[in-house]
Input
Amino acid sequence: MNPVAAALGAAFALAGSGAIAALPAPARWGPAVVGAATAGVGIAGAAAGGAAVSGTVWQAYLPDLLPLAGVRLAVDPLAGWFLLLVGGVAAVVGVYTIGYLGRDGHGPAARGALAVLPVFVAAMLLVPAAGSVSTFLLAWELMAVTSLLLVLGEHRHSPAVRTAGLWYAAMTQAGFVTVLLGLTRLAAAAGGESFAAIRAAGAGLSPVTAGGVFLLCLAGFASKAGAVPLHPWLPRAHAEAPSHVSALMSAAMVKLGVYGIVRVGFDLLGGGARWWWLLLGALGAVSALYGILQAAVATDLKRLLAFSTSENVGLILLGLAAAGVWAGAGQDGVAGVALAAALLHAANHAGFKTLLFCGAGSVLRSTGTRDLDALGGLSRRMPATTALFTVGALCAAALPPGNGFVSEWLLLQALLHQAPQAGTVLTVAAPVAVAVVALTAGVGVATYVKVLGTGFLARPRGDGAATAVESPRSMLVAMGLAAAACAGLAIVPVVAAPALERIAGELRAGPELFAGGGVDLRLAGIGSIVSPLWVAVGVIGLAVGFAAAGRALGRARRRAPAWDCGDGPLTARMEYTATSFAEPLQRVFDDVLAPEQDVDVTPAAESAYIVRAVAYRRRLPDRIEAHLYGPVIAAADAVGRAGRRLANGSVHRYLAYMLAALVAVLVAGVIR
Amino acid sequence: MDGGLSGQDPACGAGGRAGSRAAAAAALGAGLGGSVQVRHVDAGSCNGCEIEIGQAFGPVYDAERHGVRLVASPRHADVLTVTGPVTVNMAQPLRATYEAMPRPRLVVAVGDCARDCGVFAGGHGVLGPVGDVVPVDVRVPGCPPEPAAIVAALRGVSGR
Ligand code: SF4
Output
């Protein structure tokens, strides 16, 4: 039997039985059952993905499973890459869930909410495995609905969860509609709904049809991926969902939007016009910059991580855009590098974002708050969590020796490449894209320094942080697994090279991306080399060397209390908070962020010169959301209110509506 | 030394000169070698001495010519200048400031109050002269001492 088929079969069977077993399981065992099932589904999915990226392909048609279209599955290396990614994330999150929801846990352990978890993971595995439009749409919708149920897990506890759920539901369904329109139009134009049939007909489509399909699909997929300006659901849903769900959504589900763009843009439509990719690049650049700026000034830990997801998706989209542009310009080798950078960054982001969201969940579970301004001092009370979170932050900041560094380096290589016949547009666009990546990386470092410094170091600024306790072992093990995966991807990304080459070859980009073996990443077409292993050895060696030298030379070292202006003792109120740390950045990017600030000085009764109290308030509303979505929501509201007048409760009137509708349909049919 | 400056130096007196010489020896022993970073603490002065210290670092007397700089933290300082009698409330901050300095370190007590509580001796809230709280290496007499005297004392420390 085909190993992909066996593994996928096992995954779906496990998901089903896990969901069923979770319903009658006693409350005490529910999280363990669901966590184990989810981890099992993840491992099986990753196994299927592993087999697929190493060259095993699998196709199946199950006509009896669903009426009309049946179910068509097709797993190729590209699907395998995302199966591996989703499976890996789910395996870690499954283990994490056991502790997170378990005894003294946090969040909803309601049976229904528990049972949905393995189904959600199975739906995410089904998306890349789908081999036809109908199966894909079914899986996509299943994924959307199950994730919505999971986001709403804590709706009883806070109204913010309900708002988040509403946003998510509206945007994910709107996205589904655009994808549905796009893919059904594509299937109709291609004369068949299986991906194989569409692929065969894809090149012959008229540019208008192909462009329209691409735009429709891009809208849906980019909103799922959280690209700005289709992002407003993301910071809400990621922040308000239970943390294990945030991890799954941010690390895995968002990547399926990326998968959709690759599948439709590169595979089904076979490349396409240059403006598609320039548009995608613009989307990516805006997402990267806006995402990281919002993350830099966010004080809610999970909201910050969510905006950082937008940023990383932006970088991935930039990579895809570069791949599309270079492939169109006949530079297959560079296109392959760009594609590899995008896919590798997707995997890297999945790794460190799983780790970071799990870390955020541990903090939330143990302190009861996500507010960085009220955290601090966790390194003493939660040393293991802090250490693991540090690994994730290092990777997310794209600093060597983290894994984010490797994929961003690849991305820069692809962007820096200048083809002689590139033309004016590319000659301008490529350096701009490089600048965007550089600025994003810089602000990213500041962001993660802020998270680590104000959230975990120094002294606790709130009661929750002061009484925090270390997380249970299963959560630490899960985070350790994610950290190990990040370290693996950081130090020996070469292991992914054959898979990336296979995918690039399949998508008609350069087949020979990486030259030679060994631990270095050698780019065949561009001729540059990076050696993450030696970079890591160098950085760690330097750090250890400096520490040792300091110890050896510092004979006259003297322990002295921290300088407190002589007027001690130091209190937590003197510390940098997340707000104050980000204030200079906020000032620099004032025009972009447009913060609403308010300083209230209350003088004493005796004299206007004596200050009794100073109140400082700051709000950082999401401008894009306010300006783009505010009017739409207001208009929808107005239409809804006006529509109410149509429904005045009279049965006669309703019957008249029905008759009118029927007549309209008949007339339309006759005219046609 | 600038002749003009030393010429306007009557109030400094023998005590100042002697102190400077002792300090110079101490400073050379301590290896300050011509560069002295000074942190100033007002332990309870009337601010008269502060005005004179300000003048010492102003354009006329310009102590920075002689390798002496005022710094903003005791962590960066070799020398602590202290003015005023030490009040009850400033005793602990003064001790903490002295403790925070890197070694080697010197203390210069500026003004009569710093030497022996001056006009504030026996006053309410006065703990005692600077020497009661931290060890003093150089004393600059005067109420307030002239900028030239302060500069002379600091030059003694910097050795330039
Ligand atoms: S010595 Fe004179 S000028 Fe200096 S603090 Fe005392 S009273 Fe004021």
Observations:
- The longest strand of chain A covers residues 611-619.
- The mean pLDDT of chain A is 89.
- The pocket of iron/sulfur cluster is lined by residues B 45-46, 48-49, 83-84, 111-113, 118-119, 143-144 (CB under 6 Å).
